[in-house]
Design brief:
six-stranded mixed beta sheet; five-stranded mixed beta sheet; 11 strands; D-Maltodextrin-Binding Protein, domain 2; 261 residues; alpha/beta
Length: 261
């Protein structure tokens, strides 16, 4: 009995004083959308998901992503509901959601116009876009050029719920062009051109970008857990070459991309 007494006392002390949650492996929970190659169903959760996971791992944290429609991702992430934030987010999208942006980016993106091969677009200045009916996705930040013209009431737009629906509208001839992220188009276009219905047109990417490349971030809510996750992510990102990691991811998982994009 005496031999077991020290072990029994140690066990009783462990029950009375459990290991605090902060000392255990913690998880950062983020909402996202299916936005290849950055997030969603691609390998490693997309390039942004992979970079977030690496940054958090350096802080002894893990990432749990929940993929859902874009507008629901924003609302649920900001409401808390077991989530700390959402990604990928532009500064405009995070400000609109009422969140707090990560100080450091998780990658970069760039928008251009998708067009049909039978009716390619030629534009040199912003006023050239005013004659077009342009498809956008509901809730997206479309960049300063497109959203600037929209806010001025000068641009005719047509809203879709997802990028794929937006591009299908273009193939069906319901719009003249569609705003799309350049890397995303390279991933989606082969499938869309291969599976289009009779009467639809093949699509291509207009070679002129709409705006310069811009950074994407994680947008955190203002809960204590969200703010702690934001601080940990920024600390982890500080030790990473994010653009190099994004380029490496795209080379491995999206070989159809032009490396210069």
């Amino acid at each position: 009995m005496k031999r077991w007494l020290p072990a029994l006392l140690s066990l009783m002390l462990a029950w009375a004083h459990p290991v605090p949650a902060s000392a255990q492996a913690a998880t950062v929970r983020l909402a996202t959308l299916d936005w290849p190659p950055f997030s969603g169903s691609m390998a490693e959760g997309g390039s942004a998901g992979s970079i977030i996971a690496q940054a958090l791992e350096s802080q002894k944290l893990s990432l749990q992503s929940q993929t859902m429609p874009w507008k629901r991702a924003l609302s649920q992430a900001m409401a808390g509901d077991g989530l700390d934030g959402f990604y990928p987010a532009s500064p405009v999208e995070c400000a609109g959601a009422g969140g707090q942006l990560s100080n450091l980016p998780i990658g970069q993106y760039q928008f251009a116009l998708a067009q049909t091969e039978i009716a390619p677009i030629r534009w040199e200045q912003r006023d050239d876009l005013l004659r077009l009916r342009i498809g956008i996705v509901d809730g997206y930040d479309n960049g300063p050029l497109i959203d600037g013209l929209r806010q001025q009431g000068r641009l005719v737009t047509d809203t879709a719920q997802t990028d794929i629906l937006n591009l299908r509208k273009l193939q069906a001839g319901r719009i003249d062009a569609a705003v799309v992220e350049i890397s995303q188009f390279a991933v989606l276009a082969p499938m869309l051109n291969r599976t289009m219905a009779a009467g639809m047109a093949r699509i291509s990417l207009n070679p002129r970008p709409l705006d310069p490349p811009a950074s994407i971030h994680v947008c955190f809510n203002h809960s204590p857990a969200g703010q702690a996750a934001r601080q940990a992510l920024d600390q982890g990102l500080a030790g990473l070459d994010v653009l190099a990691l994004q380029a490496d991811y795209l080379a491995r998982h999206a070989p159809e991309l032009n490396p210069t994009n």
